[in-house]
Write a structure and sequence with these properties.
The chain is of the alpha+beta class. Helix content is 23%, strand content 40%. The longest helix is centred in the N-terminal third of the chain and has 25 residues.
Length: 107
């Protein structure tokens, strides 16, 4: 019984360190709100995102930026080019195409 309790107590600090590390990692992402006054496509996705307020979330070291419509909760993922580094203040760059407006890059 004493040995089991000792093992359980010995694992408790390890679990706290692991969970603390996860919460520190979660805090490093960058989130920015912005308004888009027109509907648009994200890269080669067929889904059209409606005009409205969006949240753009980038995580250091990840090539993916997640764009979420704050009203509908609809999400799209944008794959950034190799070597992309977010400076903490991402900006969306749109381009007119034959299919409509497209999110061309995030800089």
């Amino acid at each position: 019984m004493t040995q089991k309790m000792f093992r359980a107590l010995a694992l408790l600090p390890c679990a706290a360190v692991m969970l603390g590390g996860l919460s520190l990692h979660a805090d490093t992402s960058s989130v920015k709100k912005f308004e888009v006054p027109f509907s648009f496509h994200v890269q080669h996705q067929s889904k059209v995102m409606p005009a409205g307020e969006y949240v753009m979330q980038t995580t250091p070291g990840s090539p993916i930026t997640v764009i979420t419509n704050t009203k509908t909760g609809e999400r799209a993922r944008f794959l950034n080019p190799a070597g992309f580094e977010s400076n903490g203040d991402p900006k969306a760059v749109f381009e007119p195409t034959e299919e409509g407006t497209s999110l061309k890059r995030i800089s």
